[in-house]
Amino acid sequence: MATITGIWTSPGRKSARSVGHERRKAIAGFGLEGCAHANPPKREVLFASKEHLDSVNVAPGAIRENLTVEGVDVERWPVGQRVRVGEAVFEVTMVCDPCHRMDELRQGLRAELDGKRGILARVVESGEVAVGDDVELL
Questions:
Q1: pLDDT band at 98 (very low <50, low <70, confident <90, very high)
Q2: HSE of 91 in the Cβ direction (CA atoms, 13 Å)?
Q3: How far is residue 90 CA from its own chain's centroid?
Q4: pTM, whole model, 2 decimals?
Q5: Rounded to whole angstroms, how far apart are CA atoms 11 and 118?
Q6: Exposed/middle/buried for 119, CB within 10 Å: 0-12, 13-18, 19+?
Q7: Average pLDDT over residues 74-97
Q8: DSSP class of residue 78?
């Protein structure tokens, strides 16, 4: 079973910071409460696989994902897949290709993250998500 191991928001655009939370509200048509990187409608929430982060030696939250998931390769979820986490439901909108900002974290990281950055989703049902919540494909 896949579970949420990290919840992250960015306090400001281009802040290069992620703030960790034990729980956060996912808001339909917006993203995670308080996250400055939400860009509706397709780029509301970024899911990343913990195993992918571990494979490139990057700490959870560093690539500015919103939800770190352990136990599944999120990049295998097809566009349109609905996912329940806690009280919220998300719908996969697109793969998130690594951008030039990844090389600001570490030179060459952009290339290392190819096929591993994660997937973007929109919130279709608002609700609270928490560290430890199961991730259920609908």
A1: very high
A2: 13
A3: 11
A4: 0.94
A5: 20
A6: buried
A7: 97
A8: P
Helices (H) and strands (E) in the chain, counts: 3, 11
> Rounded to an integer, what distance in angstroms lies between the CA atom of residue 78 and that of residue 92?
7
Residue type, 134: D
| 12-47 confidence digits (pLDDT tens) | 676 667 899 999 999 999 999 999 888 898 999 999
Closest CA to 67 of 138, 8, 1: 8
Cα–Cα distance between 124 and 90 in angstroms, integer? Answer: 5
Report the relative pairing of strands 19-21 and 88-95 from DSSP bridges: unpaired
DSSP 104: H
CA atoms within 13 A on the CB side of 85: 34
| CA–CA separation, 111 and 101 (whole Å) | 12
Specify whether the CB–CB gap between 93 and 120 falls below 8 A. Answer: yes
